[in-house]
Write a structure and sequence with these properties.
By secondary structure, this protein is of the alpha+beta class. It is built from 16 helices and 15 strands.
Length: 397
């Protein structure tokens, strides 16, 4: 019996037929595998399971009772799913249907991020393909949050199908006919409509920051998310450093308005004069500074090659983009005021860099350590200054 362990999950592959003739043998094999890997979350992959009788179902029930938790069953074919649904197993197990396969071979790539690439399927449809290290719960959460954002009035693409793309997963989006990323639009346009696009970009960011939501709407707290990222960084930072991260994040004023948390030229699409936001993996409610942290981070980040690919902008255009966003959002052309805003948001860019390895857990260990080294050089020694920038937030929002 085949199995694999990944990210604390034990996945056991059930194959062929499981009936009274081999149920005892299958049960013993599963017991042996679990005994050798006792502290893992249990998942049954039934992609190649052709038939399961009541004897096989009783085996699954035994392991559910022994684990005392809802065990996941993945890749259930239509026939297997019907058996599980008819017997009530879909209420006792987390049963996921087998996903259709979509090939991206020959498709035009229209966007790239730290953890995904976007391809155009046809004029009305794109597919976002995730890095194979991105866990399924993050993908399904993004689908759910995108729907919540749409219902809250945020212009966003509609996700309607979770699919497999070889060894990884993808999400198909529609209602974005002939759209291109804002970054691609600005790069191809040679600056002809730069300010026109930036006014719309800033207006969409303001719309999100003016959209109030309730906790019952199901959006996560971004402050809570950042505190979780800081908690995850304990493996890299000492107690004093972690304490500084926790202190500054906790000090940010509370707000119940939407923030995207990764709002940039590569995560927005330009479609028939309208800007539509995508990539809802980190959207939630919080103070707007968490969005401006991303903008400042993109300008200051030492890993400019990756940033330029994600935003589909040159370094010069990234700086131009950031200046224009501040001018349009805060409705000022005062160079001194914009410089002041940049200084405040720089503190949050350094904070974002300090927790970046937890935001993108799939990046290499080498890159994670570069961010840690950068935090020890640029953020922690300037912590008192950074805390003063938190105090100034009430002056500008």
């Amino acid at each position: 019996m085949n199995f694999k362990i990944e990210d604390g999950q034990l996945k056991i592959f059930l194959e062929g037929r499981i009936d009274s003739n081999n149920a005892a043998e299958v049960e013993q094999n599963i017991k042996t595998i679990i005994a050798e890997n006792p502290n893992c979350e249990l998942i049954f992959d039934v992609d190649n399971l052709q038939y399961i009788s009541s004897a096989g179902l009783r085996i699954l029930m035994k392991f559910r009772k022994s684990k005392k938790q809802k065990i996941k069953i993945e890749n259930a074919s239509k026939e297997i799913f019907e058996v599980l649904e008819m017997t009530g197993f879909t209420t006792m197990f987390d049963v996921q249907k087998k996903l259709r396969n979509v090939s991206i071979e020959g498709l035009q790539q229209v966007g790239i991020g730290m953890s995904s690439k976007v391809y155009r399927i046809d004029a009305d449809t794109i597919i976002k393909v995730y890095d194979k290290k991105v866990p399924m719960y993050k993908i399904t959460r993004e689908i759910d949050l995108a729907k919540k954002a749409f219902l809250a009035g945020i212009p966003t693409a509609i996700s309607y199908d979770l699919v497999r793309c070889g060894e990884t997963y993808g999400v198909v989006f529609e209602m974005i006919a002939n759209a291109v990323t804002v970054g691609n639009m600005l790069s191809a346009d040679n600056g002809a409509h730069f300010e026109e696009v930036m006014k719309k970009f800033a207006a969409l960011l303001k719309l999100m920051h003016e959209t109030e939501i309730e906790e019952s709407d199901g959006f996560p707290s971004i402050k809570g998310t950042w505190l979780d990222w800081a908690e995850g960084m304990k493996q890299f930072y000492n107690t004093a450093e972690y304490s500084m991260l926790e202190k500054i994040i906790s000090a940010v004023p509370d707000r119940n308005t939407i923030v995207h948390c990764d709002f940039h030229a590569g995560n927005t699409l330009y479609q028939n004069g309208e800007i539509v936001v995508i990539d809802m993996a980190d959207i939630g409610y919080a103070h707007p500074v968490f969005d401006f942290a991303a903008g400042a981070f993109h300008v200051l980040c030492s890993d400019q090659e990756s940033i330029q690919k994600a935003l589909t902008l040159s370094q010069d255009n990234i700086i131009k983009f950031w200046n224009s966003l501040l001018a349009n959002y805060f409705e000022t052309n005062d160079a001194a005021k914009i410089a002041e805003l940049k200084g405040i948001f720089q503190a949050f860019a350094l904070l974002r860099a300090a927790v970046f390895p937890m935001k993108h857990v799939q990046i290499s260990e080498e890159r994670k350590l570069l961010y840690v080294e950068g935090a020890r050089k640029n953020f922690f020694p300037n912590f008192d200054w950074a805390m003063k920038q938190v105090e100034r937030l009430k002056e500008i929002f």
